[in-house]
Every structure is written in structure tokens, then in C-alpha cells.
Amino acid sequence: KAEFDKAGLTYEHRLIDDMVACMLRWEGGYVWACKNYDGDVQSDVVAQGFGSLGLMTSVLTTPDGRVLESEAAHGTVTRHYRDHQAGKKTSTNPIASIFAWTRGLAHRGKLDGTPAVTHFANTLEQVCIEAVEGGEMTKDLATLISKDTKWQTTEEFLSAIDRRLQEKMAKA
Predict the structure, then answer these.
(1) What is the DSSP string of 73-130?
(2) What average pLDDT does this structure show over 101-108?
């Protein structure tokens, strides 16, 4: 308790249903320790409630910072995959998957002392952000703006990311 007080932290036990309601109202400033399943489900609620599961990554590191595991926290989108298998166009947001790879690449660049690798990872993340800010996005993000906002298929969005990345890397 003394260390918490010294750091300006408080501890409060809450039941999960109360905490779920609070997380949807609050604007941060708390740490929520959960059992694995509860944390998985509730982090998905937060991601969807404040944007899209397609934007959420999960990063775990060892205490010494040498080992890093990064993943797209959303899991698979089976419904979209089945549509893809049937030859239908899908609009699946790849940003979390891209960021899972870039976080791993950036960490590898840091460990190896290869700034070009870190630069590439950071540039790829930046072009993803710039694409969305520039109006190029998948359906999950477009519908957050309005039902009439233009959206891209998965392939169109990935092509936009590729185009932007090629342009930005050519300038570097």
C-alpha cells in the first residue's frame, strides 16, 4: 500500500459486470487485471467499442526486453474467409496483422542494431495510418464515419498501402 500511495496509485476490487460498464464510460487511467479468457473477451469489447478489432494488437515482452511476441489480437474472421473461398470480395481490415509484423520487425532491428529494418517497420505503420486518415480504409472503419463513407475491399486497401509504402520508401 505504501508503494501504491507513493506512486499515486489506488487499488479497488470490482466485479466483472461493473468493470465492463465502467470501461465503456471511462477514458483510461486504469489497469484492469483479468484472467486470460476474461481479458481476451473484454479487450475485444474495448476494441470494438472504440473503433475496430482490426486495429488491436497484443504485445508480450520478457522482463529483460530481449524476447517479444506480437500478434493481431482479433483472431480469425471466419465469415470473411468463407466469403473469400466462395470467390466473393471481402473488406477485412489487415492493420492489426500488419502492426503485429512491424512490431516484431522493429524489435528485431533494435536487437540487431539495424536501423534500416526499424525504419521500414515504422514507415509501414505510418503509411497505414496515413491511408486511413486520407480516406482509404476497409468497411469496418468507414462505417464508423457514416453508412455512406466509401470503403475498399481487402485487396484494394492492401494495394493502397503498398502504393503509399513504395512512394515513401523511394523518398527515404
Answers:
(1) TT---HHHHHHHHTT-------HHHHHHHHHHHHHHHHHHT-HHHHHHHHHHHHHHHH
(2) 98
